[in-house]
């Protein structure tokens, strides 16, 4: 992905220029103790992951290595992920559920396993890592197979993972035997209990991520559509809200966001700008004849956004990301990334973070993607752009700071050419950050003085 860089980020009406540039460039980082975050990143002598002083990483899993279960090899294209307590009563141990965004040409598929496979012709799915209290990997196995392009997802209040297919391919396309474009529930305590059942009422479209309101059970969903008309932001009203594992199979009502007078979110360029949120029923959630984003939503139309990506519940609402917008590709305006917030109690949406115009190719931060809540109450954001990739934090005050950087394009002979960061998540006790490098597929555990 070739995209330009920039040195200005704005959040909550606060603009950062030189300060952000200093924080994010390799040899000119701010002195420790100044500014937000944990100080400058220190170059990793192994050429894998640069972290602030006092932090360390462990490689938990690599694509191509044998799965500890003996079911095959670790699949590639590691993407969305969530961490769960292995023993909720004591909090001991962690279970990691990890997506694999495998398309039809993928070389390291998720091995098909009886009882966990939806479509044997599809190569994506999820794997499950079990970690001992000391962080050692004690088990690694398939949790969902036979799904396609499993991008991101989201955790539920009842401690399961919702894995999203980022595709609209139907049976007969790419050799598939079943329709795709669904959400699947994965139970990390017992994947065979959840099986491989598509949650069809939640819509058939190019899903990216989901977030569940822990008070009402409403599920919010983002759509990452690559061509016009771009994706929508949805909410799903379950028949059995907060009903526990398997309850979403009972169905519900799918609606899409309409911001009156704003058909394209890319035109909003003022952080702090707030708008009323309306919810319109989706005419045909199954997209039997027409993809949802092409359907007729009646008078007033519907609101679209290019590259709707990460989605996460926190601060009493839903944070969701538009990774970028390009007028040359059909957006109404250009930006290098937006983070929005939907307040369901007030029925409002607000632009919280805007990634500003390109001025310096050495700076990171274009194309925000996966997000999660940080232990301090701010956000962690994965970058999906060109060159060296970052995980960076955004404080509750809107300040931005670096957390991790891969080694691509920073002059280290022999360093792997990493893809994007993805799947950032924290252990239940907040002491370990887990994150994936998309390619070559690698899962890291990062420990240190998290606040």
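Sequence proposed for the structure above (451 residues):
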């Amino acid at each position: 992905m070739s995209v330009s860089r920039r040195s200005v980020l704005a959040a909550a009406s606060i603009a950062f220029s030189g300060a952000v540039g200093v924080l994010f460039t390799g040899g000119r980082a701010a002195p420790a103790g100044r500014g937000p975050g944990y100080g400058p990143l220190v170059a990793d002598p192994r050429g894998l992951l640069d972290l602030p002083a006092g932090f360390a990483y462990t490689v938990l899993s690599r694509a191509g290595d044998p799965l500890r279960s003996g079911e095959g090899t670790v699949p590639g294209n590691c993407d969305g992920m969530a961490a769960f307590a292995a023993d909720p009563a004591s909090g001991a141990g962690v279970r990691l559920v990890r997506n694999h965004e495998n398309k039809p040409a993928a070389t390291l598929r998720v091995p098909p396993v009886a009882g966990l496979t939806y479509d044997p012709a599809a190569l994506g799915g999820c794997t499950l890592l079990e970690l001992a209290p000391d962080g050692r990997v004690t088990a690694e196995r398939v949790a969902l197979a036979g799904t396609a392009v499993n991008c991101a997802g989201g955790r539920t209040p009842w401690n399961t993972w919702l894995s999203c297919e980022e595709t609209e391919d139907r049976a007969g396309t790419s050799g598939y035997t079943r329709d795709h474009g669904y959400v699947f529930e994965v139970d990390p305590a017992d994947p065979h209990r959840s099986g491989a059942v598509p949650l069809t009422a939640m819509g058939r479209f190019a899903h990216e991520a989901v977030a569940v309101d822990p008070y009402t059970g409403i599920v919010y969903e983002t759509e990452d559509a690559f061509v016009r008309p771009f994706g929508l932001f949805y909410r799903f009203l379950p028949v059995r809200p907060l009903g526990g594992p398997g309850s979403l199979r009972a169905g519900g009502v799918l609606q899409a966001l309409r911001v009156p007078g704003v058909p394209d979110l890319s035109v909003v360029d003022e952080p702090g700008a707030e708008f009323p949120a309306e919810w319109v029923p989706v005419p045909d959630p199954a997209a039997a004849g027409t993809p949802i984003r092409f359907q007729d939503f009646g008078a007033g139309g519907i609101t679209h956004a290019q590259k709707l990506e990460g989605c996460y519940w926190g601060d009493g609402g839903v944070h969701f990301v538009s990774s970028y917008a390009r007028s040359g590709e059909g957006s109404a305006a250009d930006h290098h990334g937006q983070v929005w917030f939907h307040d369901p109690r007030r029925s409002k949406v607000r632009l919280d973070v805007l990634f500003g115009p390109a001025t310096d190719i050495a700076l990171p931060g274009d194309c925000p993607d996966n997000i999660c809540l940080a232990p301090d109450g701010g956000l962690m954001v994965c970058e999906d752009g060109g060159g060296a990739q970052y995980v960076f934090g955004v404080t509750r005050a809107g300040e931005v700071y670096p957390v991790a950087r891969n080694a691509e394009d920073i002059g280290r002979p022999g360093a792997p050419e990493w893809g994007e960061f993805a799947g950032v998540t924290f252990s239940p006790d907040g002491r370990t950050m887990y994150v994936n490098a998309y390619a070559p597929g690698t899962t890291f555990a990062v420990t240190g003085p998290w606040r």
